[in-house]
Amino acid sequence: MANKRDYYEVLGIDKNATDADIKRAFRRKAKECHPDLHPNDKEAEARFKELNEANEVLSDPDKRARYDQFGFEDPMAGMGGGGNPFGGMDFGGMGDLGDIFNMFGMGGMGSQQRRNAPRQGNDVRYDLRLSFEEAAKGCTKSVEFYRNEHCTTCKGSGAKPGTQPQTCTMCKGAGQIRQSGGWISTVRTCPGCGGAGKVIKDKCPGCGGTGRTRVKRTLDLKVPAGVDDSIILTKRGEGEPGINGGPAGDLNIRIVVRSHKLFRREGTNIRLDMPVSFTQAALGAEIEVPTLDGKVKYQIPEGTQTDTEFRIRGQGIQQLGGSQKGDLIFRVRVEIPKRLTDKQRELLRQFDENSTGKEYEQKKSFLDKVKDLFN
């Protein structure tokens, strides 16, 4: 236990943090060390495991209370099931221990309290498509999305204006029904109200009794320079409203970057295939290389071979959240002419006839290997 870090320290929060604070901290930290984003990184994998353990304890009110009181020396920790003395024991397929307690009339109240407790609203997901340049340089986009909100007609009650939901007569508002048979008592969700404890006789015409309507919303999103495909940008509190007074969910915006006609991205670097003529490659030449900021002149040396790569510093993509930029790496593709005039053919023949063989290093090396093979 001595080697374990304090769970609050792991999540980077204080002991007065709310459930919403814990959830936000876990999401933020998880992005920094998730194994999918850091493959083959054992340190990141260990941090993610530590983060999961801290979140599992602090996001559970009972486990958090015991941790605050006892720390890592929780006297109930070894009993399984969060301190349940029957945790981990096999009851012959009788199901969850909570169901067993319900059979003896010991359950029901806790689940009803949890059902009526404040809960965070659902998150909303949106796919934002960007051009290659927009992702590289950043931009501002108008995002239109839909989310379920409290019905303005009934204020979220689901009942027709002027009426109110009625207490369920079947469960008397408890949301659960207890059935006894001898010395065994079972508790199940009330079929009359679905566990809500109330029924709506006159449904709201605006939402059909659900208490929520689908609403279109628009917001301006500032996309930072350097975002890449599948990155998630989160707008806190822009998701669906919370339940029973809980906080609103988040709007998670997934970036989808369209491919470019010329460029390919590798991290913060950009790659490009650059065609040059046979003459340019043989004699060397100053060529114009396209970049995201316009054309740049670059001198390729005499005798440049196809597939040779050159690097132009600082012409790549800005690091997300930083100021440094990657490089532009272009690969030369020597293009051999397909259609020649008679004069061009004659000149090439003269060139070949006057060749000493030293001009072709790869050809000479290949012929030497063939000679050694058959001698």
Model description:
This protein is an alpha+beta fold. The chain folds into 4 domains: 1-89, Helix Hairpins, CATH 1.10.287; 96-119 and 167-199, no CATH class; 123-165 and 204-259, HSP40/DNAj peptide-binding domain (Sandwich), CATH 2.60.260.20; 264-374, HSP40/DNAj peptide-binding domain (Sandwich). It contains 10 helices and 15 strands. It has a 4-stranded mixed beta sheet with strand order 10-11-15-14. Strands 1-9-8 form a 3-stranded mixed beta sheet. Strand 12 and strand 13 form a beta hairpin. The radius of gyration is 34 Å and the shape is elongated. The N and C termini lie far apart (72 Å). 17% of the residues are buried. Mean pLDDT is 82; it is low at 78-113.
